[in-house]
Amino acid sequence: MVVASQSLEELCINAIRFLAIDAVEKAKSGHPGLPMGAAPMAFVLWDQFLRFNPKNPRWFNRDRFVLSAGHGCMLQYALLHLTGYDSVSLEDIKQFRQWGSATPGHPENFETPGVEVTTGPLGQGIANAVGLAMAEAHLAARFNQPDCTLVDHYTYVILGDGCNMEGVSGEACSLAGHLGLGKLIALYDDNHISIDGSTDIAFTEDVGKRFEAYGWHVQHVPNGNTDLKAIADAIAAAKAVTDKPSLIKVTTTIGYGSPRKANTAGVHGAPLGEDEVKATRENLGWSYAPFEIPADVLNHMRKAVERGASLEAEWQETLATYRTKYPEAAEEFERMLAGTLPDGWEQALPRYTSADKAIATRKHSEITLNALAPVLPELIGGSADLTHSNLTELKVSGDFQKGQYGNRNLRFGVREHGMGAICNGIALHNSGLIPYCATFLVFADYMRAAMRLAALSQIGVIYVMTHDSIGLGEDGPTHQPVETLASLRVIPNMLVIRPADGNETSGAYKVAVANRHRPTVIALSRQNLPNYDETSIDGTGRGAYIISDSEGTPDLILIGTGSELHLCVQAAEQLRSAGTKVRVVSMPCWELFDEQDANYKESVLPKAVTRRLAVEAGSTFGWCRYVGDAGAVIGIDRFGASAPGNVCMEKFGFTVDNVVAKAKALLS
Asked: Is residue 3 part of a domain?
């Protein structure tokens, strides 16, 4: 059996290691090195500090744990199993990385209860954690009372060298330091190895000094392999620092215990191999069979179940007291936790007629946000240093700053990628907060990885993207999105809405707010656009609908989105005056239209009408599915130009005359 010199703590740590080793070996795929090296710090954190309830993974006041170095996910799966989460059985461990398993190749919040955020792309997890910590700070400031603390939990992260190399982590951690998020504690697995080998080939900076410059509290544990007391003391010291986030640099050996592969890139992302597994078992005195867990380990680790139940019961008592003392606040708090929107919130959405002044849809967005803010207290967000261009400030609130966490205007600075990942974290806090973030549409490219993860993670972040076409004008092609709409439309589980006027902007927000399990891009114009009597909030929710029509079967269908809809409306009037039967369809959202039933889609775009002309100031890519072989598209498949917006639109063919000419060419 196991050598007598092993303490219970060592047994637990080695159980974590060998669950990871055995699962990776069985799958013939995975990353055993990080779990082997980081097991001591993870054990200390989960055993002594982390507050959670394995039987209720979504208990609100749990501490959040994020494995930012998501390739080491067997570390997390081992901990979830050992501490008693029903979501990860021993059979799930054995099915690591297999079809339909609860133990995918990187942590996924939508697959495995107990996993808070979806990680894998390095740096995203630590940036998500900043959002989690911001959500905790905001809710604590709003709901805690001097005699009743309802919101009080930490966000812990394990990140690696790769996370610290990625720029998104720097963006988010810089902001976290500025905000003084004292309940964010990151343990940096400093093992000096990445896929290409030793990190000294590309990464030699002093990470601790960098984080000190960010405004973080920084400590170093030189021996993270065996000095459990130093790890525990560092976490305790980090908790004592309440006005700064904390980074604990824990120097470890990747693949600890492996005689031949430890401290090499060979143990980072590949199984040890049968011979090396055997040698590692002998080296660490682990005589148990694959996937065998000593009874002493389970007895100790499963104490987390009773401990977690007690912690939640205590909190439920606090909540009951809070309900009695602060019934209105408690009602709002519990409504938000349930993910329920206030009754009748949609009634606050602005509505317009053709008599209303022509303004840009970004201005309609500002009006809508500020109409919703008083009735949706869960709405929180801001811009990447473009507040006065994106028009995203909530007038009812001040700025979310250090010591002013109850405010709802988030100032992200020029940090688009960090902004996107932070908003993911706010949404993944699962407290009912509805985050929105804003920049120019073209800079979606800077935050695309975070946007993709929002869609994958099934969370309802709202992206307010202004300056949505060449119509923005003089800033030129670096700022004029032409391919961006098409590139976002191909992301699964993402809604892309390009409203044409005020009613459709309200409709876009109605859709976005109601969709808590998929993100929404709202693409908005800089230039002024007319309002129409025929546009509607409900029509926007169906993705496409008829704006105007002729009697009988139309000869031609004009399809417009956003700032080009008015060109279709005016062109239709000219064509009708010449005797052509024309239908005008507004199509603000492809995805919503595709989800309608066949009868509705046929009623809007009948198959018998093959002459169709789509008009959109962006790439023509993808429009073939709606215009067919006999149709055409007025779009732009090259970069734009620097000139006044109206000149750009004219030069690239976005005029009524050109729409009429193209329509006549189709009909002939």
From this structure: no
DSSP state of 469: S
Same domain, 450 and 516: yes
61: left (phi over 0), alpha (psi -120 to 50) or beta: alpha
Cα distance between residue 618 and residue 639, in whole Å: 10
Are 414 and 372 contacting, i.e. CB atoms less than 8 angstroms apart? no
- Measure the CA dihedral 570/571/574/578, to 10°: -150
- Helical pair 228-240 and 33-44, crossing angle rounded to 10 deg: 60
Sorted by sequence, the CB contacts under 8 Å of residue 397 that are 6+ apart come out as 373, 407, 408, 409
In this structure, what token pair is assigned to residue 171? 């963006």
d(C-alpha 385, C-alpha 59), whole Å: 35
- Please report, as a single letter, which amino acid is at residue 274: E
pLDDT tens digits, 549-561: 999 999 999 999 9
Task: Assess whether 287 and 419 both reside in one domain.
Answer: no
| Residue (of 483, 519, 527) closest to 501 by Cα position | 527
Q: Are both 469 and 603 inside the same structural domain?
A: no
The answer to whether the predicted template modeling score (pTM) of the entire model surpasses 0.90 is yes
Cα–Cα distance for residue pair 229/24, rounded to 1 Å: 29
Which residue in this structure is represented by tokens 């080939």?
A: 201
CA 257 to chain centroid: 36
Average pLDDT, the chain: 97
Total number of domains constituting the chain:
3
Nearest to 250 by CA among 280, 208, 288: 208
Give pLDDT, residue 170: 98
| Residue 552: count of CB within 10 angstroms of its CB | 7
Domain range spanning residue 398? 345-529
> In whole angstroms, what is the distance from residue 490 CA to residue 486 CA?
7
- Binning pLDDT at 50, 70 and 90, where does residue 230 land? very high
- How far, in whole angstroms, is CA 587 from its chain's centroid? 26
Same domain, 522 and 550: no
Burial class, 465, CB count within 10 angstroms (exposed 0-12 / middle 13-18 / buried 19+): buried
- 3-state DSSP helix/strand/coil % of the chain, to nearest 5: 45, 15, 40
Which among 171, 276, 366, 416 is annotated as catalytic? 416
H helix count then E strand count, the chain: 26, 20
> 524 and 554: one domain?
no
Where are the extended beta strands (E) located within 445-573?
Answer: 462-466, 495-497, 520-523, 528-529, 545-548, 556-560
Answer yes or no: is pLDDT of 3 > 80. Answer: no
- Residue 416 designated active-site: yes
Q: Do 411 and 271 belong together in one domain?
A: no
Measured CA distances, 371 to 12, 248, 381, 397, 506 (Å): 54, 44, 15, 13, 10
Q: Of 260, 288, 307, which residue constitutes the final position of a domain?
A: 307
Residue 314 domain-assigned (yes or no): no
